[in-house]
Each structure stands twice: as C-alpha cells, then as structure tokens.
Amino acid sequence: MNRANQIFGGILLIGGLILAGCNLTTPEQQAFQATLPPDDVNAPIYTATFTATETPLFTETPSPVPSTPTETSTPTPTLTATPEFTPTPSNTPTITPTLPLFTLTPPGTDGLPAAFENQPASFSPTEGWSCGDFPCEEDIDGFMSRIRVPDGYTLAHVGRFPGQPMQITYGIDGRLYATVLENGTRNGAVYVMNADGTTARYSGDLISPIGLAFQPGTDTLYVSARITPSQGGGIWQVLPDGTTTLVVNNLPCCFTMIDNQPNGMIFGADGWLYIGVGSLTDHLEPVDPRYEAYATLNELEASVLRINPHTGEIGIFARGIRNPYDLALTSAGNFYATDNGILTGAGDRLLQVVQGGNYGFPYWRNRGCAECPPTDPNITISADFLRFPDYTLPRGIVAYTGTQFPENVRDNLFVALWHNRPNSQRIVRIDPASVPADPSVPYEPEPFVTGLIRPVDVVVAPDGSLVIADFIYGHIWRVSYGG
User: Using CA atoms, how far apart are residues 359 and 388, in angstroms rounded to an integer?
Assistant: First the structure.
C-alpha cells in the first residue's frame, strides 16, 4: 500500500463510504482519530443539541449606583445644632461602548486583464507515480507534473502545513492561516504560513476546527469548532498573541464524530459573521423509531446563521441546508454555499442563498430518500442553483474578486470537489451567468485544477492568484495567470 493510500485508510466520507484502517478507542484512551468511523453508517449518532449560556464578545460595565445616605433621627439638646450630612463624592461610571461593525467595500475592477477563454484543464495519468497512484508526500516535482491547470495559467508549490488543513484564509498581514488537524486526530489548532513557506502554531487547542474568518480591517480571527468531540458547537476568537476565547457556545453539533457541525464562515458586507451549521441527523431519522417517526429539527441546525461578532446575537439567514460546508460572497453581494448530501449520496449541490430562503432539507423524498419526512406544505422550497454528481462532496468555495485573472472570470465560483469519485479530486470553475435556471438541465463545471488528492479549500490570495489546500499531505498550491 502506498503512502497516499495509507493516509486514505479509514477516512469516513459523508456520502456513506467507509475505508478501513481505524482503531476505535475511547476519548479517555487517546485523542479522537481523524479517520474514526461511526459504529454503523446506517445508524448515525444522534445527540441532543448542546445548550449553554452565550458569551458575548463585548459587555457593558455596569454603572455603580451611588449609595444614598440614611439619616437616623437622634434627639438633640435644646440650642444644639444637628450637623449637616456631607455626601462622599463618587466616581463617574464608565460604560464600555459596543464597537461599530466593520463593513466591506466591494472590490474594484480596475486593472483586470482582458477576457481570455481558456480550455479546461487536462487530466494526467492516475498511476505510475513515485508512490503508485500519487506522488509521495515529499515528491513536489511529481505533484507539479501530475497537477494540471489550463493554458495561460501556472502552478507553484507554496508550502505545507504539519497536518491536515480544513480551511484557509489570508490575514491583513498577507500571511496564510489554516485550521489544521494534528497527528492524525480530530484535535487541532490554527496555523499560519509565512511567505517563505514556514509554518507556526497560532491558536490554542481546538476540537475539530473548520471555518475561519478575519473580521474585515482587523487582525481578529474567528474560528468554528466543537466544544466536545461529540456534542456542542461554538465560535472562538483568536487574537494576534494567540489568545483563544470561546465567544459563542450554543450552536448545534454533531451528526458523527467527523461530520455536520459549525462549518465555514465569512463576513458579509454588513459586517455580520455568516456561518453554515450542519444537521444533527442524516435525514431526520429518530433516536428511537418506536416512539417517533422523525427527529425534531433544531431551530438552528441545517442552516446558515447570521451572527453579530460583538454581541453574539444570532439570527437565521436561511434554512433547509443539510450540511452547508462553506460560503462565498461575490462583489455584487450574492451569497453561495456548498452543501453535502445524505449518506446514500443524493444532495451534493451548490446553492445561491438568499435571506429567508428554505432549501428543502430534510424533505428529500423527491431525491429518492423514502425515509425522509413528507414535505411540509407550509414552506416554499427554493431551487438548487446547481446539482453536483452524487458523492463528489463539495467543500471549499470562493468567488473570484481579485484583479489578476481575466475580466470574464470576475465573480466566477471556484469549488473544491473532495471525493475520489469521477468528476472529483479537482477545483472546478462555474460562471453563475452560464448556469441553467432549471437545475435538472445538465451543466458541466469546468475542470480548472486536476490531479489533486483531496482538495478541501480554495481562496483568493492578496495578489489575485488562486490558492488551494489539499487535505492529505497538507500541501498548498498556487495558480497564477500569465496571460
């Protein structure tokens, strides 16, 4: 077995595929393994939603109340004056104001290269590399030969994180930050990569960290993770000195040990934090079918939430999304989300998310899920924007708002398709204007980067290039436009 396949061994794929190779131990015996499968994929873990008191980021300092003197009536001799009471001066109370939200300015279009219609990226052989199906983890030249990009674009190796990256983002310092699982477990931290490719641990310990986003115009980072390995989701604030503080602690979590929790997040133009939260079940299956036909849907699960980062106020932006893994925002202000389907495969899709929209989960009988609940007649279900083939497992997504790529690529969507099935293991490009209005009409996203192992996220770098994280070996790749 080659090195890549050794790492593949035991990874649970949320489409229902389980690969062998894991040792099951209790949390007390060792850290949770990144490859830990549930006991039975047909009987997924269902847990009650963790509830706790929300902790806002900023609180007002209570104003001290000056004490009111109480006079005691005391008989006094005739002609003896009663002394006047002199109050003790009190300090003026200080109220810590709630800081204003930082809003985004839409990126400009100045300096975009002329339109260029490239051909899709080609495909390299799938075997015969230094470790069989793939180059060995240190074989950068092998990967450079295997990974293909369209004509007019070039590929470069940026560096490597010491673990499995989940999502990546750039800070205002120009450095690349990533949530990383460490030592083959579900435990991890935020890491930072410098310009020379070296890395350092940036945050405190986190359980299954995934999403991360910097508040616009600041070096304050927010990260999504689990409060415990199997229950409770939250958002942590990470300051530049590495101080890691739980600031939102009442988010729904979790479906299995590795799936469906608070996921990717992004700041909107309004300065609020938007985050995707997965469902607590596969298709609303009950804890005990003897007593109920379907589980009760938690108010905040399977949705995109809108959170005030300063107060912790939570609102529901959109519902009915089984496992919204990542979010993207175009320069025009349009939101998109990737969604992962049920264990039997149906439901891998791309959504254009609008406020108040309901995208149909768990009412998926029309997708072949006979065990799903019947559709609620009181809701209006919004259509999918684009359906991916089953088991492709769309992960990271970004809207191109840089100025390096040609002008016709502006606001195109780049999506990481994670699984090792046909039409996956690649970054695809989608021009929203070219997607048919009817999701049942076939549409083939353009293969933009092929030959990857498990692409998990894609972002736009400060210089306008496209940067990709590959989960298996932690490699980071950069795609630049040469004209």
Answer: 15
* Opening angle at CA 342, ends 262 and 293, nearest 5: 95
Q: What is the pTM of this model?
A: 0.81
Task: Decide: helix, strand or coil at residue 192.
Answer: strand
* CA-based nearest residue to 141, from 444, 387, 381, 475: 475
Burial of 1 (0-12, 13-18, 19+ CB in 10 A): exposed
Question: For residue 175, which amino acid is it?
Answer: R
Q: Peptide bond before 254: cis, by omega within 30 degrees of 0?
A: yes
> How many Cα atoms within 13 Å fall on the side-chain side of residue 355?
5
- How many Cβ atoms are within 10 Å of 13's Cβ, its own excluded? 21
Enumerate residues 6+ apart whose C-beta is below 8 A from 308. Answer: 101, 272, 273
Report the C-alpha gap between 210 and 325 in whole angstroms.
Answer: 9
Q: Give every CB contact of residue 438 below 8 A, 6+ residues apart in sequence.
A: none
Helix/strand/coil for 307: strand
Helix (H, G, I), strand (E, B) or coil at 168: strand
Q: Which of 314, 285, 296 shows the shortest CA–CA distance to 52?
A: 314
pLDDT number for residue 438? 86
- Alpha carbons 272 and 63: distance in angstroms, whole number: 28
Cα 464 from chain centre: 21
Per-state percent for the chain, helix, strand, coil, to nearest 5: 5, 30, 65
DSSP letters along 39-80, please?
S-TTS----PPP------SS-PPPPPPPPPP-PPP----TT-
Highest mean pLDDT among 115-119, 124-128, 475-479: 475-479
pLDDT tens profile 250-274: 999 999 999 999 999 999 999 999 9
> Token pair of 84, please?
């006047």
Q: What is the pLDDT of residues 451-468, one digit of tens each?
A: 999 999 999 999 999 999
Could you tell me if 284 and 342 are in contact, meaning their C-beta atoms sit under 8 angstroms apart?
A: no
Cβ-Cβ contacts under 8 Å for 147 (sequence gap 6 or more): 124, 155, 449, 450, 451, 452, 477
The span from the CA of 413 to the CA of 100, in Å, is 31
Instruction: Give the residue among 329, 300, 334, 328 at the shortest CA–CA distance from 316.
Output: 300
CA distance 167 to 267: 15
Torsion of CA 232, 233, 239, 244, to 10 degrees: 20
- Supply 40's token pair: 């039975």
Q: Is 4 helix (H, G, I), strand (E, B) or coil?
A: helix
Q: How far is CA 336 from the centre of its chain?
A: 13
Number of residues that make up the chain: 483
DSSP state, residue 311: T
Task: Answer with the residue of higher pLDDT: 111 or 60.
Answer: 111
